[in-house]
TrEMBL record, chain A:
<dbReference type="Pfam" id="PF00662">
    <property type="entry name" value="Proton_antipo_N"/>
</dbReference>
<keyword id="KW-1133">Transmembrane helix</keyword>
<feature type="transmembrane region" description="Helical">
    <location>
        <begin position="215"/>
        <end position="234"/>
    </location>
</feature>
<dbReference type="InterPro" id="IPR003945">
    <property type="entry name" value="NU5C-like"/>
</dbReference>
<keyword id="KW-0472">Membrane</keyword>
<keyword id="KW-0812">Transmembrane</keyword>
<dbReference type="GO" id="GO:0015990">
    <property type="term" value="P:electron transport coupled proton transport"/>
</dbReference>
<dbReference type="Pfam" id="PF00361">
    <property type="entry name" value="Proton_antipo_M"/>
</dbReference>
<comment type="similarity">
    <text>Belongs to the CPA3 antiporters (TC 2.A.63) subunit A family.</text>
</comment>
Automatic annotation (TrEMBL), chain B:
<feature type="transmembrane region" description="Helical">
    <location>
        <begin position="464"/>
        <end position="487"/>
    </location>
</feature>
<dbReference type="GO" id="GO:0008137">
    <property type="term" value="F:NADH dehydrogenase (ubiquinone) activity"/>
</dbReference>
<feature type="transmembrane region" description="Helical">
    <location>
        <begin position="183"/>
        <end position="205"/>
    </location>
</feature>
<feature type="transmembrane region" description="Helical">
    <location>
        <begin position="422"/>
        <end position="444"/>
    </location>
</feature>
<keyword id="KW-0472">Membrane</keyword>
<dbReference type="GO" id="GO:0048039">
    <property type="term" value="F:ubiquinone binding"/>
</dbReference>
<feature type="transmembrane region" description="Helical">
    <location>
        <begin position="128"/>
        <end position="145"/>
    </location>
</feature>
<feature type="transmembrane region" description="Helical">
    <location>
        <begin position="32"/>
        <end position="53"/>
    </location>
</feature>
<keyword id="KW-1278">Translocase</keyword>
Amino acid sequence: MDTSFSQVAWLIPLFPFVAFLLLLAFGRGQRTLGVLLGSISSFAGLVLSILVLIEHMSDGTKYYQYSFKWLDFDGLTMNAGYEVTNLTALMLVVVTLVSFLVNVYSAGYMKGDERISVFYSYVALFSFSMLGLVLADNMLTLYIFWELVGVCSFLLVGFWFSKPEAKAAAKKAFIVTRIGDAGLLLGILLLYWYMPDHALDFVHIGNVFDGQTGIIAASVTTWIAILIFVGAVGKSGQFPLHVWLPDAMEGPTPISALIHAATMVAAGVYLVARTFDIFQASQTAMDVVAYIGGFTAIFAATIGVAQNDIKRILAYSTVSQLGYMMMALGLGSMTGGIFHLFTHAFFKALLFLGAGSVIHAVHTQNIQEMGGLSAKMKITTWTFGIGTLALSGIPPFSGFWSKDMILNTALHEKPVLFAVGVAAAFFTAFYMSRLFFLVFMGKPKGEQHAHESPASMTIPLIILAVLAAASGFIQTPWNNTLGTWLTDGAEKEHGGAGIVMVISAAVGLLGLYLGWLVFVKGTIARDAISSRAPWLVRLLERKYYMDEIYEALLVRPLRGLGYLLNAIDEYIVDGLVQLVSGTAVWFGRGGTRVQNGQIQTYGVVTVLGLIVLLVALVGRRFW
Amino acid sequence: MLADLPILSLITFSPLLGILVLLFLPKHRSRWLKATAIIATILPLLLSLWLYADYDSTKGGKAYEETATWLDVSLNKEAVGEVGSYQFELQYHMGVDGLSMPLLLLTAVVGVMAALASVHVKKRWKSFYIWFLLLEIGMLGVFLARDVFLFFVFFEMTLIPMFFLIGIWGYMNRERAANKFLLYNGIGSAIMLIAFVILVATAGFRAEQVPEKQQTNLSYCGSYEVITTNLTKADSYVNMSTEQTQGQENPFYLSERMRWVIFLLLLIAFGIKLPIFPFHTWMLRVHTEAPPSVVMIHSGVLLKMGAYGLLRFGVFMFPAVAEDWKVAIAILGVVNILYGAVLAVVQKEFKLVLAYSSISHMGIVLLGIASLNEIGLHGAIIQLISHGLISALLFLIVGSIYERTGSTELKDLGGLARSMPFISGILLTAGMASLGLPGLSGFIGEFLSLLGLFDSQQAVTCVAVLGVILTAVYVLRSILGITFGAMPEKLAAVRDARLIEAVPMITLLAFIVLIGVYPAVLTEPMKHGFDTLLQQLSEKAGR
């Protein structure tokens, strides 16, 4: 075979890495260099990724894998490498596309910031790490990049480091995901010692767990799968480790679109999909994934209803949608999970960038302080509207098709989760219509001089709007293109989608209609619920008190333990040793007192010494 | 050609040249004194790099061994009957192997960086640098010695300069800290000496046949090789119990229990240095009271001598005992990790955070040692090197920050990323390395240690992994506290790094990244470093 594009796929992460290095070296005080390098490198990556994807969509073998020995000594060989499968090819395009658009968008959004080149260098480092994660051919390489994207996320959340909120959010993001990472690390340790030949690459993992020959005991398989999932829970903001994601909205909005909506937070879903064979080998693990995903979907969607910060609503929406993806995976539909990841990347990036455009115009994030923006921001309004419809699952927009596929699977596998999914879909549509109507409809509030954003910001919006509208058609109930392509047709299809389509569309429309009734028409009073059940609203506003629970169960006890041990360290541990040294001094004093010139004293000491010697000599025999 | 030179002695004693020059310089010419000292530390670095380049791991360090008789003490021949000679040999014996090579490089690198960081020293430069260079000779010698008494001499040689460096150039409570340092380490040395004497008197005994003269030469010596071979060879005197010698009393016999005792003595002696909980309180004082450049040496190199000694004498000489004790060592390691980490979370002083962090990180080394397999032992050594570089870097930064702000209390600091972006960036990266971010050296050591330990002690490893989370908590709490957030008014005018500060920072960071990205720089010379040990362990397991 001639050189294929897949063979040079390693170039894709290299482009942003070079951009990062150049910015690190020459970025100081530069204003345009970042925009230039970031856009060019991500565009180059995008072009190559598309070529790779096209190559993978055509017939013939195109799988390519390359690895080299990274850590190598007697007793251990760890490889690092990359491989290009259909799944990775798809992810490459998603990542590079969103990354390119965000790079362009940031040129407008971050224009006034004096540290813009630092911003671009972080984004470049992130793109590198994320693409490395996607391309990794084994668990260790993946883990390395997994950690690196986490750090980039941390750096960008804390980009405006002087703000105490940004500092706290960055810290929280890092530590909470670190909890998940610890689980993933243990999973890798377990995998290493149980895999034949200690192989960690996905091909071998697939072979070992796929064969159902019981090479690895069932309980161990379950543990490995669950520990890997713990990593995914942290990264993808699943309950109960979701708490960092809404706070991460302290970062610049383009970052929320790129990292905290489209790419990095989806890495958990991607990880589960990559190691899907392990999960499929353990029904327990699959159930855990499905129920955690389903629970997260409804849990976060209900919180989204009661928030007022435009970005936080979208953040909870992201958590909820990631829950859908996990649920799909847990129900055995990798296609469903990846499909939703794919469409979600576009419409959620669109919504965040749209929100950024709004914030750019009105300088507030509180939707209660906004209103009537549709007159002044036509493009933003229209594109945001498309995003809203896609997220709410209104046909024929992309979100409808992917959500439909998940709900359809749920109906066939676990009807309970179908019910949960439908309920979450309703809440989703409701909070989105609340958001949309409050921001764009009604009367303008306050002295706002809102204006449409510059072209560098609106053009990415338009491109994403087209994708959010149309990208769902790669997989419909009548045409299983994506499923066949991703899984070689191995996954079973669920027919009879008609009823599910009707229900999911109806629920979405109902949610939107209700929102219209409340926030535009005013038929239903806005305080209809808060006046009758204030505790419920407060519960949702306070996000089910999750932060408080963490504070009480983990943070305070840890701090308390710290203070306790600190006291022990100071007074007891140190004190004991002081005592020992004090004793030595006391002995010394005693020794001087013994030397008093009196024969009797000397005689006693001699006898004592003799006894000690005798005991020592006799005692030696027993050793 | 390198083998023709006494390269190891050259490395060890090259700082003497600096001392000689310093002696003849007037004591107020601080620039000259500093320059001389820095050059004197660069010499061993260059020589060690040369050695590193020339070192062939398949052959080991045999080619470079240097031996000379230092002192032969004749013992009473009549006591043992017809022999050719009967004596106690003190050897000057230097050598290098897979275990000491990485540590030698670490010492040389940190030495130069600490000398550069000593530009902040404010008084009595001449004596400071003389003590400093003596300290460096001691450290280099510790890792290159191949004889227990020579080791002991070099080990003691590090104590006295440290005592003065802390006691004269330290902060407020420097004298108490110096006393405490000497007290603890003195006790450690005494215990070590007891263990060494027992070892030499039993396993150090040799009987060499001289066929042409038809007589036997009897001797005691402290050579690592002799002691290790005697201890592991089945038919050597130390291994002959009374039954095997047909009822004859064998004064050289080391019973199982005696071996345990020696191992315990070594564990305590080196545990104080490492430090192992609860022997750690002295090092907290040193971390807070010694001048930062001295702490770079202390935390960067001196603590590593503890782990090195534990490996070299404890594990290498008593693999069977280590095997029996490995669960205990692993638990000690976990206690260190968690105890250090939890305490680091609540400290209010940045230097104390780093001190407790050192305790926590040395716990990882214990885990690697406790694994007693190739992976974990590699992990332990890499963790030593990595922690040495990282803590040297961190204390370098501490020195620079203190120089500008006059405080290392967390409450006094904040928002420094605004006024000193370069130092803050390096500090953040060093913190990331410390919490084990892949791509930086900390990850490799931590990962390999955990991976190695997981093979035999899964439960302990799981608990140890909690440390990974806690490390992130205290590193971010302290470092973000310094660099992020609002900046106190009075810090607005502080300047970013000067060139003389930036150079060592970048250099140390470069090494940290190099090991993280290309760990073969360390694993390559370490190859075959553990061969004999692992062979003995597998023999024991086979039996």
